[in-house]
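Obj.: predict assembly geometry.
Materials: sequence records (below).
Method: joint structure prediction, all chains together.
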Amino acid sequence: MTTPVVQLRAITREFSGSVAVDAIDLTVERGQFTALLGPSGCGKTTTLRMIAGFLPPSSGTILLDGEEATRLPPERRNIGMVFQSYALFPHLTVEKNVAFGLRMRGVPAAEIRTRVGEVLELVGLAHLARRKPKELSGGQQQRVALARAVAIRPSVLLLDEPLSNLDARLRVQMRQELLRVQRETGLTAILVTHDQEEALELADSMVILDRGRIVQQGPPREVFRAPATRFVAEFLGYENFLDLPGRGPITIRPEHVGVLAPGQKPPPGGEVVEGTVAAVRFRGTDVAVTATVGDRVLHAISTDDTLRAGEPVRLHLPLARAVPLAGDDGDARPATSKQQECPA
Amino acid sequence: MSRRAASGLLLLPGVALLAFGFLYPFGVTLFAPPAAEHPDVLGKLGGMLGDAYVLEVAARTIRVAALTTVICLLLGFPVAYLISRAPRRRQGLLLALAVFPLLLSTVVRTFSWLVILGRNGLISSVLIDLKLVDGGTQLLYTEFALVAGLTQLFTPIMILTSYSSLSHIDAKLEDAARGLGAKPGRAFRSVVLPLALPGVLVGATLVFAGAVTAFTTPLLLGGTRNRTLATLLYDYANVKLDWSAASAVALIMTVLVLAASWISGRLSRVGAV
Amino acid sequence: MLTALSALALLFLLGPILLVVAIAFSSGDTVEFPPPGLSGKWFTKALAHQPFQDALITSALVAAGATALALLVGVPAALAIQRRRFRGRRAIEALFLSPAIVPELVLGFALFQQLMVTLRITALGALLIGHTVLLLPYAVRVTGASLAMADPALEEAGRGLGAGPLRTFLHITLPVMTPGIVSAAVLSFLTSFNNVPLSLLLNGPGVSTLPVEMLHYVEFSFDPVVAAVSTLLLVATVLVALVTERLVGFNKVFSK
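Observations (raw structure tokens):
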């Protein structure tokens, strides 16, 4: 087994008294794509900045390629960082931006030229090499930022919300582009994002953070199918939370809840509850139904567009799809405690 | 090296220069000029504030500066508004034209008023040609000349500050007010004006302070008959060599300028609420 | 109506300056308008006037020296104020901008008293110090503005790509600040060159600046020589403004 690329041991970061990152342990294996996922203020960006060396941890140890790196300045860590704002050098052309890290490493000019050419080819921007950053579109700037980080053949590629400044359509396209570049270069990558779809689509390993702590980690499929706590479940789009007698707390996705037509026989297994439609949201191919059952609110997705608010409705809960939840330590904390924002 | 030490090192040359070339001479001169025979500036100040001539000069300085500020406002703000609503490409050129005079020396800019207002000047000869007067008319060395010269000097500053606050106001805000039923004048008064007010106030303060402390223009256009505090200070410092009197005048001028910026600071805070 | 008022305002601002140009080409012996005829004789006379020649050299030296010093001292200060967090940052910023608030004439008088009378510093030395202090607020504000507009992540990107603090400054921070530095330099040079109150009070034997010499000339003789010098200065300033416009954009010089 090879040495992990990044190892964090009990990394903690405080900002003037409040804890942004709370004793995190994390191991990133070579070639893996890891996503740090969570709402703003969860500590994900702070963690990334500590790995990069822009922020010293208050306590704990960082190992890069198995070597102690906790106090190493960023320029000696061999990291490739893609910033949310891209941070392209406005006075340099695309090729000079990409060459910057190689120049700083004293790579011979001829080799720089070949490597910059290769990397620009990789991101499909060879024809724009002589442009200045401000002459490029957002998507092109994003590719330059990626090329610049990849060009130095870093030990680890750090991606800080790299797609969040792109419009929705482009963002989805660029995900695959990002994944292709990571696979072709074989680089280890750590992605910080608050977009669960992005993490699900890109990551080999997903790490979910809440208030400075890791609440769950694992392959996206596992985490998605079996969220450990209510916080993770809510973050991943689970909307129905029930406490069934004899089964403890469970959650179930709205798209798994069936809306039964009048007289329709429910599928085998599961429970049928009766309630009233509270609201119907039209979503194009289907509708999102909110129903009140007793004092509970349930959410379902249905293709039946004839449902109207105020009408009675029968819902089918397939218990085979239900996910049992562990006790959520987050709930123990006062609900009013305000989450603090990650600085920058 | 610690980060704090690095910050200190970056600031050290500037702080040293300001301490030696600004704070030290300024403080000593205003409150205890060592070179003066009677270094009691505050005592001198007390005497001056009872001197009718000094009070007349101070009153003239404030009167001229206030009038200049008002005219600069009336001229500068509409120009700034028009420039801010002109097509993007034209804005740069218009602004450059309006602001270019700031790059010229006040001597150059005041000289022209000698030509316009003098006994053989432009206005005088027009009046003679129209047979309105018989001989040359002397408009120089009057308060009118002072206000004219200072207004021309400071209108660009008013345009510049008004423009920079107006250009940050989205033109769509006016459209929105119009859409909600406001007539153009009303939309301007109730939307643009309140938003532009802080910037305009800054401009007015700059103009007032500049007019109070302007030196070249009162020297050339006011002469000895219409002295302002600045030319009075120069007279004490360089001609009469009464340095404690000069210090006292300097103190009055400084207090006036600081008071003006304090009042405008208060006003803009009141306006912001 | 608003347009007419604005045209009038522009005429009021620029007309008098153009008038000076017309006077400069006068063939008459006194300042009069309209000039009786055209000639270039006042330019010849202005260029041959020895005090103007000497004063021009003094002005240029002082303006160049004070601009260089103000940038040398002001750029590091702007860096500290914009890019570092320390206690009293606001107070330090206010200190660096404060020379712009006090009356120039008062500053000139203070420097004359303490530096020239008390400390016996030469007129040239006092001029250089005084003008540097006068320019420091411009230098700090204009270069600071160019830093404030730049993405702070640029420097982090440089560090991440392997440049140490010094190389990050040389290869990234400095180039990013260059338009601001050019603007500040142009503005500072012109401000110093045109200054009267400081230069008037900080004079000494054989040390006088061009605007001060022009002022003295106007006080004693009223002929088109000063108009001719003004016209030459006007042309030079227009050229500087055009070159600056090419380099960094004219409006940037003013949007401080």
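Conclusions so far: Chains B and A do not touch (no CB pair under 8 Å).
To do: check interface contacts against the pulldown list.
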